Amino acid sequence: MPANSAYLKPMLDPGSPRVFNCNVMTHQILAKDPNAPQFYHCKPLNGTLLIKDTATGNDARKTGGSIGTKLYFPFNVENIYEGGRTIFVHDRLLEKAIIGQYGEGAIAKDNLAYDLRVLNILDQLPSLDPFLMKDAFLRQKIGMNNDYFVISAEAWSEIEQFMLQRFEPLVKAAFPESAASDEKARQLINTIWEARDLAALKPLITAFRLPENEALDIFASWKGIVYYAFQYQSQKVELVDMMKWLKASETAGAGVPTSERKEMEGMLNLVREQMKNEWQKIEATVRQYEDAYDKMFKFKTSSNDFLTFLKNSNQIYWELGNSIGKTNQGLYCWKVMTSRFIGSKIGWLQLQEIMGILVKVFEPDKKMTASVAWQ
Fold first, then answer.
1. C-beta contacts of 156-161 below 8 A and 24+ residues apart
2. Rounded CA gap, 328 and 345, in Å?
3. Phi-psi category of 64—alpha, beta or left, where left has phi over 0 and alpha has psi -120 to 50?
4. Three-state SS for 11?
5. Disulfide engineering: 89 pairs with which of 103, 123, 239, 346, CB 3.0-4.6 Å?
6. Across-strand partners of 22?
């Protein structure tokens, strides 16, 4: 893959929910403050990236969801788009690979232990949205430089308020005494939000008949599902615009060879169908959640569906995160690649470039171009 490849760049840029580009972000942060705390304690790791991808075959996870987290070592840390090597974070050879990449002299044992913990925390997330990453480290009481989480205070507050409103009926159902005290209710809501105090959540666990050994994971997964529902609702208009663009692009290619037009039709159909499938899965899951929630807390007609949803929330969280992550990555790449053509017609070569990227985004089982598995 040549340097500055248009195929690789949008898929590695900061902004995609399936990519954490620590390399670029560290450069930006240190340019403003050379003494700013960096993400990893092992300094060389700050030149890497993390990429969410489907783990299949020999790379499949033994536990958890099918989505893996690839650690991407660029061949050239000053130009990450020249390509690199990857290894899944859940791979048993991860520590050996990191030491082999940089040499034992460059990696202090204590620093590596800390960074492996950080990588493991991020491996437990279905996507690398700044909100989910920041929240995961807050729950683990790990202090991080907030400049790595590109989310404004206003946006954080908006998301948080939306989600906390969803927790309030749950708290008041399990803790009737909290209904008379806003302060008490808020304390309990914060306990669910943090999802790390099992003793404090005991009445809630009992009330909703949740398995105690899975309760903290269930609450964390539920919070993730609510976040994805918020994100989905806020991006619906853009998804519609992208689908319209894909449909309109069917008429492109006047004057080009028939073979090229047929290839383009195939790419358009593949992306449109894959995006439609993921969109339908997201819509069905969000609707299932909303219906179950309303039956229990709004209409007070049945609790069975919501309790079942809660118990299955870990699997639902991963499946929803996978679908919305792929869809949002496609949406991000599409916006980046088409923004320079606002008000003008996209040429055939540019259309081929854009569709080449979108095909890669919606074929997650294939290994990323210009990346090779660690051997």
1. 156/131, 159/131, 159/227, 159/230
2. 24
3. left
4. helix
5. 123
6. none
Among candidates 211, 197, 200, which has minimal Cα distance to 174?
Answer: 200
Rounded Cα distance between 147 and 28, Å, is: 9
Q: Angle CA(240)–CA(285)–CA(224) in degrees, nearest 5?
A: 95
Question: Which amino acid does the sequence have at 90?
Answer: H
Sequence-ordered list of residues with C-beta below 8 angstroms from that of 357, at least 6 positions apart, any chain: 6, 7, 10, 11, 333, 337
What are the pLDDT digits (tens) for 45-65? 999 999 998 887 777 776 656
Cβ-in-10-Å burial (0-12, 13-18, 19+) of 38 comes to middle
Q: How far apart are the first and last CA of the chain?
A: 20
Give tens-digit pLDDT for 289-305.
Answer: 999 999 998 898 999 99
| Parallel/antiparallel/unpaired status of strands 371-373 and 84-88 | parallel
Residue 14 is given by DSSP the state B
Q: What's the whole-model pTM score?
A: 0.86
DSSP 95-107: HHHHHHHH-GGG-
Return the structure tokens found at 371.
């990346």
What is the SS3 assignment for 76?
Answer: coil
- Per DSSP, 147 falls in state G
Local structure of 119: helix, strand or coil: helix
